[in-house]
Design brief:
6-stranded parallel beta sheet; about 425 residues; oxidoreductase; alpha/beta; 17 helices; N-(1-d-carboxylethyl)-l-norvaline Dehydrogenase, domain 2; Rossmann fold
Length: about 425
């Protein structure tokens, strides 16, 4: 089929590349000359693992094109439009879909992947109807459930696909489009459009709640001299709970995740429902972003001025180059405000961090993690990149002025690190004898 995909975020890029890889002719509408140039030059317009290579392959095949480039036409197929725009472009989506509907003579399917308010898909459906047109015209909701760092796997081998469809014709067409990724087991969960939109927000709210709950429990564990790791495993072993999203740490970030939780809170408030729980979830998370700073402050008895602090990890999660709402931002700001010299390493996010902070006194960026630790009075683990899990502790201890590690992601075994000659402080962790 011929597919048109509108958007410039991760969802649009992954959808375009994956659909082209299964034989569809895809036109990607980026609405950005800079991004189009980057695409034509073979540059990675998103640092998602494997995405740049897949896009380049599909560009060379001719199945993934930009507007104005040649694409083989098939007038017998329905026109299929994917809309994956940011939440603040709802009005743009309305204008776009209405214009496309006016230009389309035959059958039309609009696939709404955007995280817009609940009910937007139904509004879009109303915009594309024409009383004198006997061809089917439908809008479905296909909420974006992709996770940065694992987006390609999430699209090609999904755990589940939420499909909001109100007509058998639309459902059949979507099933055909997703058939290559839905062969082993039917992962498509069909429901109404409003239900699909709301389910997306509710999933995000539940995951955020689990994270904040575990952070609350970890902070309580610190005061009770309880090792939260044993508690986490005990909770996860209960089948009613499971292990997912039960890892305490120094707070969650990410543009999409944080934004979706806030959208859910806003939706509830707009409807007069309100949510004390979700408001507390967000509040706990913002406070948790300061947990490493508080521990460092207490360790050095509020005497931080002139100290050198190493940060390993700036991205909001491993596998991403983004720092949207990342704990590292607030942490760096607090450390610099206290007169610390901050030395940061991250495998992917240094360019984004430099865009955020620029060149300023008290902040240096390092391509090598051990260089970032030179003369440090403490090492703070902020993002759990796999490269940080098994460092050369002897080399690290030699580089640092003070052998102190604040593990914001609980990736180390406290007793082992202590045995290497370090003072260890995690989130809810206790140093027990080996």
């Amino acid at each position: 089929m011929n597919l048109d995909i509108y958007g410039q975020g991760l969802c649009a890029l992954v959808t375009a590349a994956c659909m082209a890889s299964t034989g569809h002719n895809v036109t990607l509408h980026l609405n950005s000359q800079a991004l189009e140039r980057a695409l034509n030059d073979g540059e990675a317009i998103d640092r998602e693992p494997g995405l740049a290579l897949l896009i380049q392959e599909q560009r060379r095949s001719g199945r993934l094109v930009l507007p104005g480039e040649s694409v083989s036409a098939n007038t017998h197929s329905p026109r299929v439009i994917f809309v994956a725009l940011p939440p603040d472009q709802q009005n743009d989506a309305m204008t776009l879909v209405q214009a496309i509907a006016e230009q389309t003579v035959g059958a039309l399917l609009v696939v709404n992947q955007s995280t817009f308010p609940v009910g937007t898909t139904a509004q879009l459906h109303g915009l594309i109807q024409h009383p004198s047109n006997d061809w089917p015209r439908e809008v479905v909701a296909l909420p974006d459930l992709l996770q940065e760092g694992a987006a390609l796997k999430g699209f090609t081998r999904p755990n589940q696909v939420l499909l909001g469809a109100e007509s058998p014709w639309a459902e059949r067409l979507i099933r055909e489009l997703l058939r290559p990724f839905n062969r082993r087991e039917d992962r498509i969960r069909v429901m109404g459009t409003r239900e699909a939109e709301f389910t997306k927000l509710a999933i995000t709210g539940m995951l955020a709640t689990r994270l904040s709950f575990m952070n609350d429990m970890a902070n309580l564990a610190d005061s009770l001299n309880v090792d939260i790791e044993s508690v986490r495993q005990g909770m996860g072993g209960d089948r009613r709970i499971g292990h997912e999203y039960l890892y305490p740490g120094c707070g969650f970030g990410g543009r999409n995740f944080s934004r979706d939780v806030m959208n859910l809170v806003s939706t509830l408030e707009d409807k007069g429902v309100g949510s004390t729980l979700l408001a507390q979830v967000l509040d706990i998370n913002e406070q948790q972003k300061e947990v490493l700073f508080r521990k460092l402050w207490q360790f050095y008895n509020a005497d931080l001025k002139g100290r050198t602090v190493a940060l390993w990890g700036a991205a909001f999660k491993p596998g991403s180059s983004r720092i949207d709402n990342a704990p590292s931002i607030r942490l760096i700001e607090a450390l610099i405000a206290q007169g610390c010299h901050v030395q940061v390493h991250d495998p992917e996010a240094l360019p984004a961090l430099q865009d955020e902070f620029g060149v300023q006194e008290g902040l240096t960026y390092h391509e090598d993690p051990y260089n970032a630790a030179i003369d440090a009075d403490a090492l703070l683990i902020v993002t759990e990149w796999k490269a940080y899990w098994s460092p050369d502790f002897t080399r690290l201890k030699t580089a640092m002025r003070q052998a102190v590690i604040f593990d914001g992601r609980n990736i180390y075994d406290p007793a082992f690190v202590a045995d290497q000659g370090f003072v260890y402080c995690g989130v809810g962790r206790q140093v027990r004898e080996l």
